[in-house]
Specification:
Layout lengths: L18 E7 L6 H11 L6 E4 L5 H9 L8 E6 L2 E5 L2 H11 L10 H16 L2 H6 L15 H22 L12 H15 L6 H12 L1 H12 L13
Parallel strand pairs: 1-2
Antiparallel strand pairs: 1-3, 3-4
The chain binds glutathione.
């Protein structure tokens, strides 16, 4: 499916003259990494087509067979005038897309804020294990009865500290982490915002504003709507309560 431009910005960035982008994502109801990959293109109005491959079923093995050496989603397949490039990691995608589209604003413009935004993404990429394992993403649910355990609460406290620090240094009153422009750091923390909403985690008011901003971005809303329409169910992402 080829996406038309998002309403927030009427221009659409075309891939390099000879390039075409094909994004492969997992279940939009559950796949937090896929939301990151989607936002890295869609929120920056970069033209691409996409395909959804359900996780942990035989179709997923077919995806792996067709897209070696990728093992995970999101995967970005780039057709460069007949030559294929495979990018199978969201951080690598952020850097590749920034190289191809420096005008898109994937990273903030100032060197210090760019370094901070990259550190945010790297910390997200390699950390927050407790939050990830105890509060899996599920765009179809909002629970009322689940409270975070100690390790998960420590992850959430660290996230609230990071968000406050970014906003106070670079936010300038804008709605996103590094100001008025959505950047890769926002894309990387949007799935966290999704988990915080799904599990109705109690947050400081300014963190709640960040959750709302990330989830109300039109590209996140689009992903959510598709996830809500999906009929695949992964039992380990579902709890009985709520
Ligand atoms: N390093 C990857 C991680 C992606 C990842 O773990 N994706 C999950 C889906 S949310 C996946 O593909 N799982 C399939 C598997 O592990 O077999 C990235 O940043 O893109």
């Amino acid at each position: 499916m080829l996406c038309s431009p998002l309403l927030l910005d009427s221009r659409q960035l075309k891939p390099g003259v000879s390039m075409q982008y094909h994004l492969i994502i997992g279940n939009q109801a559950y796949s937090s990494w896929s939301l990151r990959g989607w936002l890295l293109l869609r929120a920056f109005n970069i033209e691409f087509e996409h395909e959804v491959v359900p996780l942990y079923v035989p179709e997923y093995d077919e995806f792996l067979a067709r897209n070696y050496p990728s093992r995970t989603v999101p995967t970005l397949r780039v057709n460069d005038d007949g030559n294929e490039m495979m990018i199978w990691d969201s951080l690598a995608m952020a850097e590749f897309l920034h190289e191809q589209h420096p005008e898109a604003g994937i990273w903030p413009t100032g060197i210090a804020e760019r370094a901070a935004a990259r550190s945010f993404c790297a910390e997200m990429h390699s950390g927050f294990d407790a939050l990830r394992s105890t509060m899996p993403m599920n765009v179809r649910r909002e629970y009322k009865t689940i409270t975070p355990d100690t390790e998960t609460r420590a992850d959430i406290d660290r996230i609230e500290d990071l968000w406050r620090w970014a906003r106070s240094n670079w936010g300038g009153g804008g709605r996103y982490l590094f100001g008025e422009h959505f950047c890769a750091a926002d894309a990387f923390f949007a799935p966290v915002a999704s988990r915080l909403r799904t599990y109705q985690v109690s947050l400081k008011p300014e963190s709640q504003c960040t959750v709302e901003a990330l989830l109300n971005h039109p590209a996140t809303v689009e992903f959510y709507e598709a996830g809500k329409r999906e009929t695949w169910v992964l039992e380990f992402n579902e709890f009985d309560q709520g």
